[in-house]
Amino acid sequence: MKPVDTSQCLCHILVCVNRRQDSPLPSCAGADADAEPVFETFRSWLTDRNLLARIWLTRTQCMGWCHVDGTTVAFYPADELEPIWYRAVNKEDCHTLIERHLKPLIRSTPQS
Ligand code: FES
């Protein structure tokens, strides 16, 4: 076992892209949900700014907060003790989340 060096990580974003098959339960990548566009919006924003090494983005399976109207997204900022979770996130919400959680991180942190 070897520890992972997280010293350069500003935040870890988890996006549920779970799609249930043959189930009446909602899922984040279900018929009307935006999981893939949500993930892609974050990925594109980070890629365009060359930030994927500093803001980690991970696709997940069910995180337990499924909603018929959207996707579960969790932010784990490195400098905060408490994670920030959202459910029912849609593609239009991504820009609000970027303004709220990501832009302040990159403004306040020197680039290395
Ligand atoms: S399917 Fe995404 S949180 Fe459950």
A few lines on this structure:
The chain contains two helices and four strands; from the N terminus they run βαβββα. By secondary structure, it is of the alpha+beta class.
In total, how many domains does the architecture comprise?
Answer: 1
H/E topology pattern: EHEEEH
- State Rg: 15 Å
Shape-level CATH architecture: 3-Layer(aba) Sandwich
Distance, first to last CA: 27 Å
**Strand element count:** 4
Q: Could you report the average pLDDT, rounded to the nearest whole number?
A: 92
**Strands across the major sheet, in which order?**
2-1-3-4
Measured by DSSP, the beta-strand proportion falls in 15-25%
**Helix content, binned percent:** 25-40%
Largest sheet: 4 strands, mixed
Named once each, the bound ligands are: FE2/S2 (inorganic) cluster
Point out poorly predicted stretches: none
CATH superfamily: Glutaredoxin
Shape: globular
Indicate the CATH class. Answer: Alpha Beta
CATH topology: Glutaredoxin
The count of helical stretches stands at 2
Structural class: alpha+beta
Q: Would you write up a description of this structure?
A:
With 112 residues, the chain is an alpha+beta fold. The protein has a single domain (11-107), classed as Glutaredoxin, CATH 3.40.30.10. The protein has 2 helices and 4 strands. The protein has helices at residues 35-48, 93-108, and strands at residues 11-16, 55-60, 71-77, 84-89. Strands 2-1-3-4 form a 4-stranded mixed beta sheet, covered by helices on one side. The structure holds FE2/S2 (inorganic) cluster (FES). The site of FE2/S2 (inorganic) cluster has 10 residues, from loops.
